Amino acid sequence: MIYAFDTFYYEDFAKTVCIAFEDWNSETESFIYSENTEISSDYESGAFYKRELPCILSLLKKIDLKEGDLIIVDGYVTLDNSGKIGLGGYLYESLNKKYPVIGIAKNEFASEDDLRKTIFRGESKTPLFLTAVGIDTDDIKIKVENMYGTYRIPALLKKLDQLTREKDELNVRS
């Protein structure tokens, strides 16, 4: 199973959504998980993971990961050639390096990273940026390029982004 995570921040809570799908060619999701949590950390430039990682780890408690499962985050796994890691790298470490983590980012990170792949989908001239750990990035690049949907952002990842932006305050933890 592939589990894709995204978080959107409202004024007083964070909404994290996970879309689970069977394989890279899936047109629809198998499951959707969602959780609203209190914001545990202010945004800190260069340390985005401090804010989002607790949200993802909390939602992961609802999911029974199995060997062979993959995780996608909206962001970066690696940040530069010196070994600095991003959200996906911290998630990988938090999961004891058991599950490959793939970062698919919409915006380019300024520093050079020889492991980062650029992906052009559909007719878009604007790329997505791919990083990963625990799995071959070249193989994943081809899979992301061929995910369902004709636009820059694959259909299931676009749906994930939209779901995080649908405000549902009933699930906020107190």
Question: How would you summarize what this structure contains?
Answer:
The chain is built from 4 helices and 7 strands, in the order E-E-E-H-E-H-E-E-E-H-H. It is of the alpha/beta class and 174 residues long.
Widest sheet, order of strands: 3-2-1-4-5-7-6
Name the assembly state.
single chain
Low-confidence stretches: 169-174
Mean pLDDT: 92
InterPro entries: Endonuclease-V
Protein name: Endonuclease V
Pfam families: Endonuclease_5
GO molecular function: endonuclease activity
Provide tags for this entry.
174 residues, alpha/beta, seven-stranded mixed sheet, 4 helices, 7 strands, 22% helix
Describe the protein.
The chain is 22% helix and 24% strand. It has helices at 49-60, 87-94, 137-145, 155-164, and strands at residues 2-9, 14-21, 31-37, 70-73, 101-105, 117-119, 128-133. The protein has a seven-stranded mixed β-sheet with strand order 3-2-1-4-5-7-6, with helices on both faces. Helix 1 (49-60) packs across helix 2 (87-94). The chain is globular, with a radius of gyration of 15 Å. The termini are far apart. GO terms for molecular function: endonuclease activity. InterPro entries: Endonuclease-V (IPR007581). It holds the Pfam family Endonuclease_5. Keywords: Endonuclease, Hydrolase, Nuclease.
